[in-house]
Predict the 3D structure of the following.
Amino acid sequence: MAKFCGNRNSIHLLKNTNEFKKNCLIEGKSLLTDAVIWTSEYCEELTKYFVDNPDAGEGDFFTKLETQLADASANAKLLAAEMLWLMFLCPSNTGAASKRGSVERVFAWSGYKIDEATKERYLSDNALTGVGSSGTAYNTMRWRELVYLIRFTELFLKLNQSEKEALLNNHIKFAQWLEQVPDNENRQLRHMLLFLFFPDFNERIFGNTDRCSILVTLAGLTKSQYNKMKCSERDAALLKLRKEFEQELGATELDYYIEPLKSKWKNTEANTAKDVQEPKEGYTVEKTINNTTSSLNQILYGPPGTGKTYNTINKALEIVEPDFLAQHKNDRTKIKARFDELMEKNRIGFVTFHQSFSYEDFVEGLKANSNEAHQISYEIEDGIFKRMCDAGNAHTVISQQKRPVDVTGRKVWKMSLGDTQGDDAYIYQQCIENNYVLLGYGGNIDFSSSKDRKSIVGTYNVYGIYIENESNDYRVTSVHNFKNVMAIGDLIIVSDGNRKFRAIAEIIGDYEFTPSAIDDESYSQKREVIWHRVYEPSLPVDELFTKNLSQMTLYRLREPVLIRDKLKELLSGDDLNSDSIPSLAVGSKVSTYMVEGITSEIISLRKPNGALLPMPRVIVDELVHLVKQGKASISDIRSKKVFDWNTSTEMEKYIVNGYPNVLAPLVEAIVNHGIKDKAFNNSEKRVLIIDEINRGNISNIFGELITLIEPSKRAGGSESLSVKLPYSKEPLAVPSNLHIIGTMNTADKSLAQVDIALRRRFEFVEMMPNHELLNDVEVDGVEIAKLLETINQRIELLYDREHTIGHSFFLPLKDEPTIERLAKIFELEILPLLEEYFFEDWERVGQVLGDHLKTDASLKFIEEKFTDTSIAELMGAEWKQEGIIPYKRNIQALNNPEAYMGVYEAF
């Protein structure tokens, strides 16, 4: 009998359903109150305010529903609540608490009260636990299921009592009668109603994918034959198959989702449809990072010319590729070349702050664009910080291991799978789960016999769609490319808007026409694929492309827009000789939850809706211990039976039994593969270098993200946070694999003047002049190390140490130790810098250079511009100079080695 549901008890649910049929559908009474509401009058109200009044605006389903029913009667609102109750009976992949909350929310609009006994009977966990998984679209397109139920009720209530009773007592007649309900063939609720009303004749299989797989695998049907069958014909085929198995196995308690039937049709590696029993996910998240001692946030600070920017290259490689740096530490050419390669691959980013640099440049902002018609539009453009955060946060979601893929000679296509912000956003997930891609062009038209562009136009014409411009009409181009040009072995890159991509697939099947693949018939053109990479969240385009993607649904990608070397690297594989599955760690995926943090007290899980669920470690550890000791099983956790065998435990029952679908796979993962107690870093470490970080307005540039760069606030940290960005409204967390290296010139701003928010969140590494690097440099007898050391000592006495002069100004003398080169360095770099330091106080500049101690005036770098004779000639003999004395550079001294020696010899 099909009412057997494995480890899910359907008795309570089916008993409530029988009462619903009698009280509501036959007698018209309310299930939750004493009112009479299941009547045509109130059903017509729902048609008026909901079915005929669609709300395509922003907001979730219940917010919109409340607005739509605002003017409806209390009884109509009560009817809507009970319809939702009926819709929630079967799905097991929505928690009982969530279902109960939704029903009670709508129920409250009616103003009625519900007594505790009724609530316990119809809204308890036992009543709402569910018996099988619904597809993604059942929740994302809930309004369609409700419309179907309203239309079903409207038609059913028009029948007289004897007609109603006759239908509710004959599963074949009832299924045939349902065919008059609009959209009957595409609604999952149709299958749920048949299971609820006739559980001995209908399976708890609500999604089309599994129904198809069972009949194709076990009944010998082809997919084409299946697609041409009515739902009632598929029901009959499933019932016939069940009878055969019952006779063959000598048992009636059989279910397609448990053995011995499950393994006969469900290949868990090839078919990733969600199992009703919520087994381990077919996909896991890999996130491995090498531990280093490098700080996540550090600033190299010091006077100009001390090699701060120069050393950021070494610092970056020390983080991203420490082995390469250790191997080539003395080969600057190779180090710089590798740095440039990593910049090209977006593993390292570089940006310079300045006074006009803004949040919109750094994080995200609106940028004006014009099209060929010179029309202005505004699009959100990501800044370098957000792009690197997105790349660092992205986890590669893979089936078992990342297999290497040879991209040589393959055609590559860009394809959109639903609008990420629209009603068809669910299509992408459906495609991922079922290993295919669907084209949103061609409608409900079969192009199987269309071999070229011209025949596609002809097929459109047959269906009453006339194409005027055959050569340029994209409806033709897209279908032609999808059916005839794309070949097995081609690669597909799935976009996420214009600035991101979220998956890479390989085509493994020819074109198929599958109108029943999903609820929306406009997506009826299908190609089977293997998903090589799925990224959560999506990766920014500059990880693979030289510019943003086009909005066109499907088109060929070519170089130079597509960077094939980057594609090759993304599709490079792991060590295939290793069959080990990584331990549970930060970044692992448990069912639909992401592990965000692991401490000795809490395992933090990120829910699909973005909320954080902290799971007490003491409970998880005790459950692991019980399973390892054989005192409980994973099935016990999932079916809430742990306390049946372990009455002395001090675990909080409401937590263990309140989150069975989270704790069961979590404990199973730890038991099978262990747990990494310390957060670990992504092997794809990234570095963002911010040159001249103190020259920008930190508050304006970082905005609300300044808090998130703290190690503890980053994704996976002990107090991880995320914020909703102001333009895109997307959540953003700073990943723990993104290192920030800043440089700061203390001549521009002293450390004491730095924004306190910046000082608190960064480690500061001082980089002062190192004259010892110049010990072996001598120019015509001038000891360059002693020259620099003496100049800096005088600067400290006359100004401060933050305005000393760095050694890098003199490093070119290592390769070119000539007086001409030294003179050029002084004339173009050292003297202008000193003039700026001392605000053109030439006397003090001269003191830094030791001019005041030189007895030979020709060796002074700074000399008075006017002699007594020239002043008398210009101003007269009686004129006396007051105030600042004009000075000038002594060009002859710049080319005299003795002038430089005089800097330190006098000292």
User: Anything to note?
Assistant: Confidence is low (pLDDT under 50) at residues 268-293, 574-580, 678-683.
